[in-house]
Design a protein that fits this description.
The structure holds 2 protein chains of 2 kinds. By secondary structure, chain A is mostly helical. Chain A has helices spanning about 1-5, 10-20, 30-55, 65-80, 85-105, 115-130, 135, 170-195, 195-205, 210-215, 220-245, 255-265, 270-290, 295-310, 315-335; strands at about 145, 150, 155, 160-165, 165-170, 245. Chain A has a two-stranded antiparallel ribbon with strand order 1-6. A two-stranded antiparallel sheet of chain A has the order 2-3. At the A-B interface, helix 3 and strand 6 of A face helix 3, helix 4 and helix 6 of B.
Chain lengths: ~325, ~375
């Protein structure tokens, strides 16, 4: 029974929704809400990146660049030019999608990992531009971003709102908002994976030669998914900027790109729910380890190393394989 | 197995109860001082002495009976020089630890990332970072202890003017510190009627600045050279300057005002001038200088406790903590609004960095004269004025 339950993709979405509904019972204070909201935003970004890494088998080392572009586009459009949040978010995403298409289209015609080199360069260029265009971006010291607003209605972590007759605080409202965004992001990703595009992508990942032999336009599908994952990053970057209220070029840094990739690999490449777990673990560790100070980096490295040695497929795939193996054993023992 | 679980739970409960009793044995709740500093990472040369200073003086104040009859508790996080983790830790301090005041923020980026949060949460915040944007425009809840880069530019240019220099060449780093310093220098020069005849830059990873310096030397009318930068860049500029045999008066910024710069630059630093904290020359200060005693004490106490050289950055934390304590004593409580008002009205507090006179228009409270102009003579700092 558990197996059929695990296999249905919508069930996974329902479990995630249930977790998000129950979670507030365990959140003690506003800071916890804030942390979980950040996790949800980052997790949605990683779900998008996973489409590229886990399904098309291509690695992007510049995803933070797209994330940062989205964040800065929102910051500059809403902060400096007084745009409303939604148009800024959409125009930013279209612009980032276009950049990704221009970068990806010629490169993805080639076989192999040329995309990682190109994205590495693009990520660096974006970070350098954000650092140097002081007049526009505030340079290395960063820039403030106004609260998210739709039609004059503001969503600030310090406000308070009424929802269905209930008084809720701004940080709770943000939590609900980010949860819905994450669910939509996951729902879209799951549908894409099960669509003809998703099947084409998996065939590319399995064997690019075989895929092109049976008539899959590999270059087209690879660049399509690259653009989609860049748009994911841009949208989430915009939300992140609104939520944080302040951004620095660090959001577009190479370290941040690596963090995204690490979340995918740690959680489990190709597993949409696995990468969410990866994002949660990697966002949580620095906070949990904050009390150890000197040992923080050592423990961080150790945890990553042990996971990769003993769970090379990633956290969630290994754990669920372990659980279903136990279940089978138990069922076999009883029979 | 069930029994062992019960037994363990019992033990845990006993330990928890005992620790609860110990906690209630202490008198009033401690005053919580929150801090986020760049103790590790690229800005650790700022955060490390700052944390050491905070730890040591919180201990000292507690031994002497605390503040308002309550002990101080320092809650500290390391932001690794990363602005977004600084923001997260500031949020944790405000919302989870519910601190009474924040003294921290080693870099301008870390400080500015926390500012929107602090302003909305209405918690007094004393920053330890340099750039002028932190307190200009004035933000209701944000104060800072280091002098601004603008004051450094004012002090240097005033000293040039005294020596009859009106045209000088500028060479600056492209990092945050250098480029902010460059902007301020250009503005101040215009205000003071001086002319920047050459304007060169270098990036943090450059290993040779001979080309830029040659350009400056070949510019007609240049009477002096100023280098605004941070880290190893200025040491390389200084060496290149000596190698090229340039004889013009040479100025550095307060960004390199430390003994380690003297070691890096060696004999090529001879004759250069820079604005610096009096902490570099505690013993040559005149006896009637109000700061002399404070500076000497801080240096002696820090070096005795940590067995390492005192640094001007630690002094920012010293002043931040002492300003916080003084504000709480004057407010008579830890009520955020009262503490903030008291901070804003602090007058004549003699610190290591300078004499602070806060006002609603000035949340820094220092004047350019708190910088001392030093000259390197025989490999040592010499007080000029």
């Amino acid at each position: 029974m558990l197996n059929t339950f695990m296999q249905s993709r919508l069930r996974g979405l329902i479990i995630l929704a249930l977790i998000l509904v129950i979670l507030p019972a365990f959140l003690g204070n506003p800071f916890h809400y804030e942390l979980v909201t950040q996790m949800a935003i980052i997790a949605a970004t990683v779900v998008g990146l996973n489409l590229l890494v886990g399904f098309a088998g291509q690695i992007s080392l510049g995803h933070a660049g797209f994330f940062g572009l989205g964040a800065y586009f929102t910051g500059i459009a809403t902060g400096t030019y007084g745009w409303s949040s939604v148009p800024a978010l959409v125009v930013g995403a279209i612009a980032v999608g276009a950049i990704a298409w221009i970068v990806g289209r010629p490169i993805l015609r080639l076989k192999g990992h040329y995309l990682s080199m190109a994205t590495l360069a693009v990520g660096f260029i974006i970070a350098i531009i954000l650092n140097n265009e002081r007049a526009l971006t505030g340079g290395p010291d960063g820039m403030p971003v106004p609260a998210f607003e739709v039609f004059g209605w503001q969503l600030s972590t310090f406000g308070s709102y009424s929802l269905f007759g209930m008084e809720i605080e701004g940080f709770q409202a943000w939590y609900i908002f980010a949860s819905v965004v994450l669910l939509v992001a996951v729902w879209f990703a799951l549908n894409l994976i099960e669509s003809p595009i998703g099947r084409a992508l998996r065939s590319v990942h399995g064997s690019e030669v075989a895929a092109s032999v049976v008539g899959v336009n590999t270059a087209k599908y690879k660049s399509l998914v690259f653009v989609i994952s860049a748009i994911y990053a841009s949208l989430m970057g915009s939300l992140y900027a609104h939520f944080q209220g302040f951004i620095t070029p660090a959001v577009a840094s190479f370290e941040f790109s690596i963090l995204f990739i690490t979340m995918v690999v740690l959680g489990g490449m190709g597993s949409t729910f696995g990468v969410i777990l990866g994002a949660v673990v990697l966002k949580l560790l620095p906070q949990v380890l904050a009390d150890f100070q000197e040992l923080e980096h050592v423990m961080f490295g150790l945890i990553l190393m042990l996971t990769m040695i003993f769970m090379p497929k990633g956290l969630l795939p290994t754990l669920s394989a372990f659980v279903s193996k136990k279940m089978r054993k138990k069922a076999g023992g009883e029979a | 197995m069930f029994k062992t679980v019960i037994r363990r739970a019992g033990k845990c409960a006993a330990v928890a109860a005992a620790s609860l009793m110990m906690m209630s044995a202490q008198a009033a709740d401690p005053i919580k001082i929150g801090s986020f500093l760049s103790v590790t990472g690229p800005a650790s040369f700022l955060g490390d002495p700052e944390l050491k200073t905070l730890e040591m003086y919180v201990e000292k104040i507690n031994e002497e009976g605390g503040v308002l009859g309550r002990q101080l508790e320092l809650i500290h996080y390391d932001d690794v020089g990363n602005a977004s983790s600084a923001r997260n830790f500031a949020s944790r301090l405000i919302r989870s630890d519910q601190v009474d005041i924040i003294v921290g923020g080693s870099t301008t980026g870390a400080t500015m990332a926390a500012v929107p949060l602090v302003e909305q949460a209405q918690v007094p915040f004393i920053s330890l970072a340099g750039a002028v944007v932190i307190t200009n425009p004035v933000k209701k809840w944000v104060f800072k202890t280091p002098q601004t880069d603008r004051m450094a530019a004012e002090r240097i240019l005033a000293d040039m003017k005294d020596r009859g220099i009106t045209k000088f060449g500028l060479i600056s780093g492209t990092g945050g510190f250098g480029s902010s310093g460059r902007t301020q220098t250009l503005e101040v020069a215009e205000q003071m009627g001086m002319e920047v005849v050459a304007d060169e830059t270098y990036s943090g990873s450059d290993t040779d600045m001979t080309a830029q310096l040659t350009n400056i030397r070949n510019t007609s009318g240049v009477q002096a050279v100023l280098n605004f930068g941070f880290g190893q860049g200025p040491a390389i500029v200084t060496r290149n300057y000596a190698q090229l045999g340039m004889e013009l008066p040479f100025y550095q910024s307060h960004g390199v005002a430390s003994d380690s710069f003297l070691e890096l630059a060696g004999s090529s630093a001879e004759g250069l001038r820079l604005p610096a904290s009096p902490l570099l020359v505690p013993d040559s200060l005149p006896d009637d200088d109000p700061q002399k005693e404070v500076v000497q004490n801080y240096k002696a106490e820090y070096e005795a406790r940590w067995d390492s050289k005192v640094s001007t950055f630690g002094a920012y934390a010293y002043d931040g903590l002492m300003l916080a304590v003084r504000a709480m004593e004057e407010a008579g409580s830890t009520d955020p609004e009262a503490v903030r008002n008291a901070l804003e009205n602090i007058n004549g507090y003699v610190g290591v960095t300078g004499v602070f006179n806060m006002s609603p228009e000035d949340h820094n409270g220092l004047d350019p004269e708190s910088f001392r102009i030093l000259e390197v003579q025989n490999g040592e700092w010499k007080l000029i004025n």
